[in-house]
Specification:
By secondary structure, this protein is α/β, with parallel strands linked by helices. About 35% of the residues lie in helices and about 15% in strands. Helix 1 crosses helix 3, helix 9 packs across helix 10 (about 315-325) and helix 11 packs across helix 12.
C-alpha cells in the first residue's frame, strides 16, 4: 500500500517552507523531564482563523510554561494540513473533517496515493460554525440562498459537504446557486468585495470579528425541527450536531442563532509515542489557566469541555491513558474506541486488494462498495441532532 508517496512528500516540503527556522518533525528531539520533546510542529488553518488562534495561545503557553517550542504550519486546504502529518513533516494536525475522510479513505483520499490512514484523535474541543451573510443582503434563511453567489471552496471537501447540507436544509442544491470557486481564506475578502453573498466560518476569531466590526452581518439559523430538512446530513457530515450560540461575531446581547456544533480535534498518527501524547494532553490540562481566556474558544480545551466519546476516529492510546487516570474512560467508551481501531485495521488490510483490482476511475466507487458490504456501517457513535432538529449543547 502506498500512503506516503512523492506527491505527499512534495506537499509536505512546500508546506514546511512556511516555517521560519523550523526543522522537520520526526527527528531525534531530546525528551525533557516533562516527557515532551523540546520542539513540536503542528499544522492547522490560516493565521487569523479561530482554529489557528486557539493553537497559537496553547503553543505560547507550552513554550512559556514547559519550554516546548511549538511551531504552527498553516495551509488553506485539507490535504495541505494532513499530508505533512502523514509524511512526518509535522507531529500533530488540527485539521477539519479531512482527518475523518483520511481515516476512512473517502473522497480525495480514495486514491492510490492515500487510502485509509491510521490516524488518532488527541484532544477534541467542541466549536461552533455556520453560514454568515450581510444583514442587508435580503438573505434571512437558507432558502433565500437560491440564485445567490455561494463559495465552492478549493480542495476543501469537508466544508463543501457542510455547505451542501445547508443548501439541502433550505430545499436547495448546488445547482440552485451561483458557485464561486475560492480558497477558504479568501471568503471574508470575497464577501467584503461583493464576490460572494455568504461564507462559512467559525463563529469566533479575529478575522470574522474584524469583519463584523465594519459590516453588519448575521448567522443563518437552523430553527426548523422537521427531520426532512436534515435527511442528507448523516452522509454529508456525520460528526455534527446543531447547537445554539448566544455570543459570536455580529451577535448583539440577547440574540442567538442555531449553528453547527462539532469538534476540530488535534490529531496525530497511531504510531506517535504514547508517552509523548499522554504528557502533551496532561500539559494542556495542567496549564489551562494560562490560556483559558486568550480567545473566545480556548475555554473549549478544558478537561471538562472536550469530547470524550470516540465518534468517527479513535482516540490515541496516550489520550486514553490520561482519560483513564482521570476516571472518565468507561467500558462503553473503550468498546467504541476498540471498534474504530478494528475498523481502521480492516480498511488498511483490505485497501491494497481494492486498489489492485480497480481501475483509477473505479477506485472510489469500488472502495465505497467494499465498505458497505464488508463493514457494519459508519461507526458514528452519535445520535445526530439533525435527526430531530434538536441541538446537543452537551456533547460530553
Amino acid at each position: 500500500m502506498r500512503t506516503t508517496t512523492t506527491r505527499l512528500a512534495a506537499l509536505g516540503a512546500v508546506a514546511v517552507l512556511g516555517l521560519t527556522g523550523c526543522a522537520a518533525a520526526g527527528g531525534s528531539e531530546p525528551v525533557g523531564p516533562n516527557g515532551l520533546p523540546q520542539q513540536l510542529v503542528w499544522s492547522t488553518y490560516n493565521v487569523g482563523t479561530g482554529t489557528y488562534n486557539d493553537l497559537a495561545a496553547i503553543a505560547n503557553t507550552l513554550t512559556n510554561e514547559e519550554g516546548v517550542q511549538v511551531r504552527l504550519m498553516t495551509a488553506d486546504t485539507g490535504i495541505g494540513r494532513l499530508a505533512p502529518l502523514v509524511n512526518g513533516t509535522v507531529d500533530y494536525a488540527r485539521a477539519g473533517d479531512e482527518y475523518y475522510y483520511a481515516f476512512e479513505g473517502d473522497y480525495e483520499y480514495a486514491s492510490e496515493e492515500w487510502g485509509p490512514q491510521d490516524l488518532r484523535m488527541v484532544w477534541a474541543p467542541p466549536g461552533n460554525y455556520g453560514m454568515l451573510v450581510r444583514e442587508d443582503s435580503g438573505i434571512d434563511s437558507f432558502a433565500d440562498l437560491e440564485g445567490k453567489r455561494v463559495p465552492r471552496l478549493t480542495a476543501n471537501t469537508s466544508i463543501n459537504n457542510k455547505m451542501e447540507g445547508f443548501l439541502n436544509y433550505g430545499g436547495l442544491t448546488w445547482d440552485d446557486v451561483e458557485q464561486v470557486p475560492m480558497a477558504y481564506g479568501e471568503q471574508i475578502a470575497g464577501l467584503e468585495a461583493g464576490q460572494i453573498d455568504a461564507l462559512y466560518q467559525n463563529v469566533v476569531g479575529s478575522n470574522i470579528n474584524e469583519l463584523a466590526s465594519s459590516t453588519e452581518v448575521q448567522w443563518l439559523s437552523f430553527d426548523d425541527p422537521d427531520p426532512a430538512r436534515y435527511e442528507t446530513w448523516e452522509e454529508l457530515m456525520p460528526m455534527v450536531t446543531v447547537g445554539e450560540i448566544t455570543s459570536g461575531a455580529g451577535l448583539e446581547e440577547g440574540e442567538s442563532a442555531r449553528v453547527l456544533e462539532y469538534t476540530i480535534p488535534l490529531t496525530t498518527t497511531a504510531d506517535r509515542d504514547a508517552d509523548e501524547v499522554y504528557h502533551l494532553v496532561k500539559a494542556m490540562v495542567e496549564n489551562y489557566e494560562h490560556y483559558e481566556g486568550t480567545t473566545p474558544d480556548t475555554k473549549q480545551f478544558s478537561f471538562d469541555a472536550v469530547l470524550k466519546e470516540p465518534l468517527v476516529v479513535p482516540f490515541h492510546e496516550g489520550t486514553v491513558r490520561y482519560f483513564e487516570e482521570r476516571g472518565v474512560w468507561t467500558e462503553e467508551l473503550e468498546r467504541k474506541n476498540d471498534e474504530l481501531v478494528e475498523r481502521g485495521e480492516r480498511m488498511q488490510e483490505a485497501w491494497p486488494g481494492v486498489v489492485e483490482s480497480s481501475a483509477d476511475e473505479e477506485l472510489e466507487r469500488n472502495w465505497t462498495e467494499w465498505k458497505q458490504n464488508e463493514l457494519d456501517g459508519p461507526q458514528n457513535g452519535q445520535e445526530n441532532g439533525q435527526e430531530n432538529g434538536e441541538g446537543n449543547d452537551d456533547e460530553n
